[in-house]
């Protein structure tokens, strides 16, 4: 594992993250694993149904959904958002008191988007929560 630094979000990053969550709420998406999962599946399905050369860049949708997934996990676990930087670059992440349990929700969404993995958000959230609760009970 490479050396990583974790820095708190600055004011601009926090505002940007809040705006992503506001966009979800404005679209009628409840910040729950179930709603986020349905939204992901619907958005991916609509995107995948287009001819490949007609598909728009999904980055904004991926980022918005990732922010929602991260917000759900962070709220349930008392985690905070930050930026993890290592030799490969920087990425938004959520982390609590156990450094090894750092989650990268936007990257997780991007990976599943590219693979067309549907119905994964609820199990992912449950796995993240269980992983942290197990680690907390043994530390």
What does the model show?
This is DUF3806 domain-containing protein. It holds the Pfam family DUF3806. It comes from Antiquaquibacter oligotrophicus. This protein has about 140 residues and is an alpha+beta fold. It has a single domain (about 5-135), classed as Four Helix Bundle (Hemerythrin (Met), subunit A), CATH 1.20.120. Helices cover about 60% and strands about 15% of the residues. The protein has helices at about 10-25, 35-50, 60-75, 105-115, 120-139; strands at about 5-10, 80-85, 90-95, 100-105. Strands 1-2-3-4 form a 4-stranded antiparallel sheet. Helix 2 runs antiparallel to helix 3 (about 60-75) and helix 3 packs across helix 4. The radius of gyration is 15 Å and the shape is globular. The relative contact order is 0.17.
Which regions have little confidence, pLDDT < 50, spanning 5+ residues? none
Strands side by side in the biggest sheet: 1-2-3-4
- Which shape, going by the Cα principal axes? globular
* Total helical segments: 5
Name the helix and strand elements from N-terminus to C-terminus, one letter apiece.
Answer: EHHHEEEHH
Find the count of extended strands (DSSP E, 2+ residues). 4
Number of domain modules: 1
CATH class: Mainly Alpha
Q: Which band does the percent of strand residues land in?
A: 5-15%
Second rung of CATH, namely the architecture: Up-down Bundle
CATH topology-level name: Four Helix Bundle (Hemerythrin (Met), subunit A)
Structural class: alpha+beta
Terminal CA distance reads: 21 Å
pLDDT averaged residue by residue: 95
InterPro entries: DUF3806
Protein name: DUF3806 domain-containing protein
Domain DUF3806: 59-117
């Amino acid at each position: 594992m490479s050396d990583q630094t974790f820095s708190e979000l600055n004011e601009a990053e926090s505002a940007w993250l809040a705006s992503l969550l506001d966009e979800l709420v404005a679209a009628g998406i409840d910040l729950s694993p179930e709603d986020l999962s349905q939204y992901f599946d619907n958005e991916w399905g609509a995107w995948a149904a287009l001819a490949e050369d007609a598909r728009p860049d999904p980055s904004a949708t991926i980022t918005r959904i990732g922010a929602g997934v991260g917000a759900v996990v962070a709220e349930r676990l008392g985690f905070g958002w930050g930026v993890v930087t290592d030799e490969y670059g920087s990425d938004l992440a959520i982390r609590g008191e156990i450094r090894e349990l750092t989650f990268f929700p936007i990257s997780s969404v991007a990976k599943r988007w590219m693979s067309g993995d549907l119905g994964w958000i609820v199990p992912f959230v449950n796995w993240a929560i269980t992983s942290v609760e197990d680690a907390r009970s043994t530390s």
